[in-house]
Inverse folding.
């Protein structure tokens, strides 16, 4: 214990506290362990260990993490975009964060990640000029990086004499 990383341990236990309070899945686990008469300190350590396993899988696995308690997959870029819209983040920062997140998403997941973004872009385009244009432009850029989207060629300027 003398050589332990005390700051890391404190951070993980702090995350465990937050998960027990704010996350339904971990809150139910902690309640069950509490009802079974387990020591509250042990409960925090168990939640912290589960979190570190999930975090390791997400960071080192280089694949999209699918939690067993979720039926449908969550979409990373769509959730990030929703966060930025809710917090009214400026478009350049939003686009920068989406690009950073896109670098972490495996290429085999691009098509799945593009689906909710394409639906959101289509909704913005059908609204007409009233909607926030910079957001639709940012979405178009992200979709292009995902390899999905409409490709429009520019006019050549030639006159067709036919």
């Amino acid at each position: 214990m003398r050589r332990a990383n005390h700051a890391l341990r404190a951070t993980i236990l702090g995350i465990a506290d937050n998960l027990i309070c704010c996350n339904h899945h971990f809150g139910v686990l902690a309640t069950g362990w509490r009802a079974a008469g387990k020591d509250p300190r042990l409960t925090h350590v168990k939640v912290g260990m589960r979190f570190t396993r999930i975090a390791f899988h997400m960071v080192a696995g280089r694949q999209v993490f699918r939690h067993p308690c979720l039926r449908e997959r969550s979409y990373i870029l769509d959730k990030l975009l929703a966060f930025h819209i809710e917090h009214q983040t400026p478009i350049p920062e939003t686009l920068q964060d989406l690009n950073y997140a896109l670098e972490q998403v495996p290429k085999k997941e691009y098509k799945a990640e593009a689906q909710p973004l394409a639906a959101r872009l289509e909704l913005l385009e059908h609204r007409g000029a009233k909607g926030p244009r910079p957001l639709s432009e940012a979405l178009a850029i992200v979709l292009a990086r995902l390899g999905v989207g409409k490709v429009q060629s520019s006019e050549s300027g030639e006159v067709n004499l036919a």
